[in-house]
Every structure is written in C-alpha cells, then in structure tokens.
C-alpha cells in the first residue's frame, strides 16, 4: 500500500499531495471530525469529512480561490477557528501554491495586528470577527486587496467563501511547487522577544511529515486528538483522523477535562497532542476520578518542558505499553528530539530533580545537534571550535531538513539565529543545554533568561528544579535583578492550586534552606511569592520571565 505522496516529477514537492494520496488509499475513512453541539440528552453531535470529501472540498475551494486571484505565491492571512472549513482551506491554499499567514490570536490584538501588517499579505480569509477587526484597524491591512468571509458577511465588502467555492468538482491541477518554495509563514509566539514570521517551505513540511511518522511509528487509520490547531494539520497528511477538541485552543491550561476525556472515549482516540499545561489539568482530574484511557497508545507533549511529576500523573490514566513522549523543538525547527515516559520516570527524573536540567531525549532522524559556547552576538561562519567540551552547558544548535531557513524580512534576526556552513546552515535555538554520553539533550533554559552574577552563571531550569521539589511549590522561576554580570538572583514561587499561602515566613525559610542543599542554588537568597505566573499564549506553559523580572525588580526595591 503506497502512503507516500504522488509527485509530478523529481523536483515537485507539495505537502497537499499527501492528502490526495490518502484520499485514494483510504477514501471513506474520516479525516476531520468536529463537534457541532449537543442533543437533548447532552450527547455530543459531530460533523465530519472523509479523506475523499476533504480532498474534493479542498479542490473546489482551490479552484474558486484561483479564480479570484488567490493563487501561487499570494500571501494570505488565515483567521479561521479549528473547523472543517479550516482544514479544507489550508489544503486548498497549499494546492494553489498560495502562502497561508498564521498568527496566534491569543498573543493580544495589538501584537497580532503588528504581525499581520509585517506579513504584507495580499489576501485575507477570515471569520466575521476578523473582518470586523480589519474594518476597525484598516492601516494594518493596507496591502490586502482580496477579502473573503467564512460565514455571513455583515456590513463590509468582499466575497464570501460560499460564493468563492466552485460548485462542480473537478480535480484541481495542483501547483508543482519545489522543495524550496515558500509554503507558509507561521509566526512565533514572541514569548522571549518580538513575534517573528518563520518561512516554511514545502520541503520543510514534507520532512516534518516523514520524520514525525517514523519517530512515533504513526500508521494510517489512527485517531488523533490534537489540542493545538497547527499540529492538527499534520493529521490528514499522516492518514490520521483529526478529532477537533471542544476547547479554546488559546487557553489549554483552562480546558474542561471532562470534554477532553469525553472526546477520547467517543472516538477511541489512539494519539493525543497536549501541552504540559493541558497534560497537568487533565491528568490531575483523571487521577482524582480514577479514569483510564484504554485506547490511547501515545501522547506527545511539547511547547515547554513537561515536569516528570506531571508525566507520572497523566501516566496513571494510561494502560500498559502506552507512552508519553516529550518533544523538543521550536517554530523554526520542529521536532528536534524526543523520548518516552518509561525512560523519563525510570532514569532521568531523579537527575532532573537534582538540578541536571530537563532531559528532552535524543535527536530524531534527520537532525544533527551541537552544543556551542554561549554568545549573544551573531556568528557568521561555522567552525568546529565553536563546540564546547562534552558535558558542558552551551547553546543548542541544530541542522537538518526540517529546520527552517529564515524569517520573513528580518535580516538582523536571521544573522543572530543562523550560522552559515558551506551550502548549509545551523540554527541557533536560543536555548541552553548539554548532551550526556548517551546522546541525550538536557535542556537548561533560554539563553536570554540566564542569570549572570559576579561569581557564576545560573541557569533557570536546573535551579528551579531544586525549589520545585518542595510539596507546596507548583512551579518556580529564576530571574536576575540588575545588570548582567552583577545580577541579583531572585526565585519567584507560585504555590500549588488551593494553597492560600499561610505561614509564608516559615515557608520562605524552608525554601532558603532547600537552596543550600545544592551548590547551584546556594547563592539564591531572595524568595518572592507570585499568585499566578504569566505564561505564553500558545501552550500556557512557558513562563514569561521577562514580565516576572520587572515585577520582581519592583518588589525587591519596595522591601
């Protein structure tokens, strides 16, 4: 059975060919399933498209988009919620060779508008609220000439998707894009700096599909619950049924666990993507209720390091042989590494809790990883003497076919992130870590978050692990007050849910005593308690240490 994409010739790579192949191999299997409401008994009603239907629907949309000028190379803002239309539109845009521009709405309207303006898009396809926004803030959409509404058009002009869609299906002659041709612009969350538009080529998407399939042994016919919309787009290409969860994708930390567990049971979900925040919320509920998920054989967690205790908690819901895989990567390079909960809980957990960093596994096939000395400036050319000694902490640099080549019109950021190496390049992840003798990567935090005192450099993840061992601590965050080189290390503490913070003076003393048990935390003499850490909008898991630094600076001055 052939499950690799058909290609017009050796130089043509278009990620939409995976869908066309799946439509031929398993035409009547469900490709996308979406909840549409509940009946009078409270049971969820679902709508779906089979692989054949999704292929036909995206053909009809592709022809219609082409007819109105949304064609090859046209940058197109896509502001549509996870839905059947969302999937059909994305593959239609790939088929015509247009370039979807995708921005996380949860980053805030102001930042999102700046990203959209920066993309200099020529078309906008969006739900009614998106068009309300563009009529209220037209200067951010000055380059857009084609407007398409998904749903009812209100007081604004432009087209509707129903009018654009070609009524009579004919196989659409897919654009013969090359591997280096731009396929999409995906914006980073901007959790450690300005959000940047990342160039995704068809070759990068193709490599991701192949390597994700091989790394996790995914087979056609599996059923996925992707709680992050962009990961859902891989499902049709992998031959998996995508079950769109009933949740706000910008608030995974506040998801209703019952709805997630209900969807798994309704469809026999075999694979699930979950950020650490969602993993914690659903796992805590499931453990309390004694719930088991017998159909789930694989959980993939990414977006931020998943604490071993979080992994152990969710694992209580899984049956024998099912694993939680923690992945490491970024918008610019995804995935980089992965390994399973069996190895985490039996081997690396005890080292992480002692301050070795968070192990994120071994590099996946097609990726090379090097640890280079820490530097905040650009590095123009690769030389092997950039690499640090074995076991030493440095910046993680990666090279491989799923590593993106650059940012959209950001040459300064390209210079800071890319190192030329002959005809290829290395991408600097902006993360710090080290590699052990087994070839595993140990993540130690963001480079920009390191705390540099007069005596030493402190890394966030190892130091925080010492404090996270306290039973009342939900999570901690190390920040540096003052100028680098003369930083004052401050440990911010968020208590467990439901902890009212009684006896804080005694607790503070306990934490300071805990700091003295490890050489890496002995210089930390300031503890601050914070009600709820600010976190990233994509996964609700990465801590906004920049905001905490400002907050801690004010608190320290007021003491």
UniProtKB/TrEMBL annotation:
It comes from Desulfosarcina widdelii. Residues 22-408 form the AMP-dependent synthetase/ligase domain. This is Peptide synthase. NCBIfam families: PRK09274.1 (NF006754). It comes from the Bacteria. PANTHER family: LONG-CHAIN-FATTY-ACID--COA LIGASE (PTHR43767), NONRIBOSOMAL PEPTIDE SYNTHASE PES1 (EUROFUNG)-RELATED (PTHR43767:SF1).
């Amino acid at each position: 059975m052939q499950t690799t994409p058909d290609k017009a010739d050796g130089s043509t790579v278009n990620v939409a060919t995976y869908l066309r192949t799946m439509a031929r191999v398993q035409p009547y299997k469900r490709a996308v399933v979406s909840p549409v409401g509940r009946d009078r008994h409270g049971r969820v009603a679902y709508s779906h498209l089979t692989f054949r239907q999704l292929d036909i629907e995206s053909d009809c949309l592709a022809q219609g988009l082409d007819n109105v000028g949304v064609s090859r190379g046209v940058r197109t803002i896509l502001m549509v919620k996870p839905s059947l239309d969302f999937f059909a539109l994305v593959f239609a845009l790939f088929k015509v060779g247009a370039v979807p521009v995708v921005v996380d709405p949860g980053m805030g309207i102001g930042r999102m508008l700046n990203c959209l303006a920066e993309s200099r898009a020529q078309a906008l396809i969006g739900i009614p609220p998106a068009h309300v926004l563009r009529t209220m803030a037209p200067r951010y959409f000055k380059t857009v000439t084609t407007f398409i509404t998904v749903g009812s058009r209100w007081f604004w002009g432009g087209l509707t998707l129903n009018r654009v869609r070609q009524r009579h299906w004919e196989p659409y002659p897919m654009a013969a894009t090359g591997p280096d041709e731009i396929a999409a612009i995906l914006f980073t969350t901007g959790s450690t700096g300005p959000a940047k538009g990342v160039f995704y080529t068809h070759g990068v998407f193709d490599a991701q599909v192949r390597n994700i399939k091989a790394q996790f042994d995914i087979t056609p016919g599996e059923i996925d619950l992707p709680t992050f919309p962009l990961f859902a787009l891989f499902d049709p290409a992998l031959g998996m049924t995508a079950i769109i969860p009933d949740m706000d994708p910008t608030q995974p930390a506040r998801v209703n666990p019952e709805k997630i567990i209900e969807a798994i049971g309704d469809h026999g979900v075999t694979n699930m993507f979950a950020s650490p925040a969602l993993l914690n919320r659903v796992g805590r509920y499931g453990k309390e209720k004694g719930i088991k998920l017998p159909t789930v054989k694989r959980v993939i967690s990414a977006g931020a390091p998943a604490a071993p205790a979080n992994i152990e908690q969710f694992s209580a819901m899984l049956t024998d042989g099912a694993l939680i895989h923690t992945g490491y990567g970024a918008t610019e390079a995804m995935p980089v590494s992965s390994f399973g909960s069996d190895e985490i809980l039996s081997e690396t957990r005890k080292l992480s809790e002692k301050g070795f960093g968070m192990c994120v596994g071994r590099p996946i096939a097609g990726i090379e990883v090097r640890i280079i000395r820490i530097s905040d400036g650009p590095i123009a050319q690769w030389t092997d003497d950039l690499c640090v000694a074995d076991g030493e902490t440095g910046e993680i640099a990666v090279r491989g076919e799923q590593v993106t080549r650059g940012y959209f019109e950001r040459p300064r950021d390209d210079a800071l992130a890319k190192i030329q190496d002959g005809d290829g390049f290395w991408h600097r992840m902006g993360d710090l870590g080290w590699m052990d003798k087994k070839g595993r990567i140990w993540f130690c935090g963001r480079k920009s978050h390191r705390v540099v005192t007069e005596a030493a450099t402190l890394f966030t993840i190892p130091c925080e692990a010492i404090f996270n061992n306290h039973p009342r601590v939900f999570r901690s965050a190390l920040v540096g007050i003052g100028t680098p080189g003369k930083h004052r290390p401050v440990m911010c503490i968020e208590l467990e849910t439901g902890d009212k913070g009684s006896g804080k003076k005694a607790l503070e003393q306990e934490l300071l005593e805990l700091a003295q048990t490890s050489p890496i935390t002995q210089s930390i003499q300031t503890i601050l308690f914070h009600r709820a850490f600010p976190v990233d909008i994509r996964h609700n898991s990465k801590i906004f240490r920049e905001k905490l630094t400002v907050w801690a600076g004010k608190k320290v001055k007021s003491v």
